[in-house]
Amino acid sequence: MSEVYALRRNWLRDRAAAAGSAAALVSRPANVRYLAGGAPPGAVLLLGPAEDVLLCPRTPTGDLVEGRLDEQLRITVLPTPSGDPAVAAADLAQASGADSLSVEEHDLTVARHRALGSVAPRLLLGDLGGAVEQKRLVKDEEEIACLRIAAEIADQALGELLESILVGRTERHLALELERRLVDHGADGPAFTTSVGTGPNSGRGGHRPSDRRVEEGDFLSVCLGATYRGYRCEIGRTFVIGTTPADWQIELYDVVFAAQRAGREALAPGAEYRAVDRAARQVLDAAGYAEGLGACTGHGVGLEISEDPQLAPGAMGKLDACVPVTVEPGVHLPGRGGVRIDDTLVVRPEADGGPELLTITTKELLAL
């Protein structure tokens, strides 16, 4: 992987140079990890005129959560943990002879940006913009392999939960059990805070688990994800507890399932982001559920759980091959509950079989 990280850094160095900057400073943690192999807390990456340096407030631990740093990188630990690695990097760039430095303005606070200019007044500060985020959009096969393993772990954890007794247990307890199972199966940790919603809480996007207990006849919606070597996946499913589903539950589930399928089938290289959203949204809108929809149908995943592209009504751009995304339409009916169905897929051309489904837990409406 050292060669891969070196190529990524060379690409960014060339881009900065083309914009007139002699050096570049990367501070957003996911971008640091993408270019360096790891991201110890607080670390920044300086692509300097002479060499690349990772500046850290503390000595890296080598923990899996931090990642495995590229051995070719020089690592500098600040003399005091209270120091700011970004400020130290600007000072180092100026001392190395750089007259200009591109930074990630969208990641830096105003105060931090001012501190850079104060410590290195001869440096002309420019903006990298979202260059690294855009580079991260298309994944290589090794990145996709990590996502595939993360999805397998999430599927395993969810499958085991479905085999256990659920009635009487709280949303919070079920969420904690799922997160423990993720780690037991080899995840670095959960990709995000696990959501478990029962009864009137089901189908709510981003619902924080409460002390409500699972009851017979409830909808149970679960959204979880695993992180593996820094890469994050997402899966969401909805079930009925302990009895034959009611007619309204079957109807709502069928509509959301049809919308999710429409969104998945719209994934193809060259498809507009908003066209994927529209494919799913039209199904729900036609069924009279427009008011219950979320802001977007899905989003990219990778080193962050929500990254570009956004599959939303106003999103501009087109999908490329090897871009992993979620398709996660849902409807929540206040006071009654709702349905969410969420998969992680990789965009593939039709010649390669179309979109690759990473999360494979059944989407059949099960009565548990």
What keyword list fits this structure?
single chain, 368 residues, alpha+beta, six-stranded mixed beta sheet, three-stranded antiparallel beta sheet, 9 helices, 19 strands, elongated, Aminopeptidase P family protein, Creatinase_N
Structural overview:
The protein has 368 residues and is α+β, with helices and mostly antiparallel strands. The protein is built from 9 helices and 19 strands. Strand 16 and strand 17 (337-340) form a beta hairpin. The longest helix has 22 residues, at 141-162. The model has no long low-confidence stretch (mean pLDDT 95).
SSE ordering: HEHEEEHEHEHHHEEEEEEHHEEEEEEE
Q: Helical stretch count?
A: 9
Low-confidence stretches: none
Reported for the largest beta sheet, the result is: 6 strands, mixed
Identify the overall geometry: elongated
Radius of gyration, in Å, reads 23 Å
Distance between the termini: 44 Å
SS-based class: alpha+beta
* Percent helix range: 25-40%
Strand order of the largest sheet: 4-3-2-1-5-6
Instruction: Please state the oligomeric state of the protein chains shown.
Output: single chain
Kindly state the number of beta strands.
19
What is the topology?
Blueprint: H1 2-18, E1 23-26, H2 29-36, E2 44-47, E3 52-56, E4 74-77, H3 85-95, E5 100-103, H4 110-119, E6 124-127, H5 131-136, H6 141-162, H7 171-184, E7 189-190, E8 195-198, E9 219-224, E10 226-228, E11 231-232, E12 235-240, H8 247-265, H9 273-286, E13 298-300, E14 307-311, E15 324-327, E16 330-333, E17 337-340, E18 343-346, E19 356-357
Parallel strand pairs: 1-5, 3-4, 5-6
Antiparallel strand pairs: 1-2, 2-3, 7-10, 8-9, 9-12, 10-11, 13-14, 15-18, 16-17, 18-19
Helix pairs in contact: 3-4, 6-7, 8-9
